[in-house]
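Re: the request from the purification team.
They wanted to know what the chain is likely to look like in 3D before they choose a buffer screen. I agreed to run a prediction and write the result into the notebook, where they can find it.
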Amino acid sequence: MARTALFGGSFNPIHYGHLLLADDVRERLSLERVIFMPAGMPPHKPATGLAPAVDRHAMVRLAIADNPAFDVSDLELRREGPSYTVDTVEALGVAPHELFLVIGSETFLDLLSWREPRRLAAGCRIVVIPRAGSAFDTEGAAARKVLREIEADGIAVADGADVPERGVIIVHAPSLPISASELRARAAAGRSLAYRVPPAVAAYIARHGLYGRRT
């Protein structure tokens, strides 16, 4: 199985910030594949304003169509009820040392509220992306508690071609000032989504009347 990153999210909608982050992580960790995993029913987020699963999956597929290293899975969309990442990691069937789970720093600090975080960490390498403009203290009590509870062998920054062989990995990926909630509001108001989402995604949103936008 190819060295793979799992990049989950609601992708409501997918935008250039997601794509830039995924490409940077792929390059920095020398990955062969990045799997975008749209969430069906995220257990940690309200479903208010969430576009139908089939539409979010279709938008991701359109957004990544020109990148052979990117793939999209409907695994979580086909799962009934709340979808848990630990189940997704096991279902992918990728060896723990070959699978990288990409999450934000705020999510990492909240990891102990997830379903079986220790089993999750045993099934993959956790990659943390610090939020731009926010401090992420890897030596702070909150981070150390998570590391201790998931039995991670330390935490280290991926610097160029040097990928830490063990423990949680920090990747300082670039960030674009784009938010999905702002995009939904722009779509609802009939405003332009250009330079924020790929043209094919903007066209799909308009064609299907997502977020209140219609042609």
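For the purification team: The two ends are 43 Å apart (CA to CA).
Please add any questions underneath this entry.
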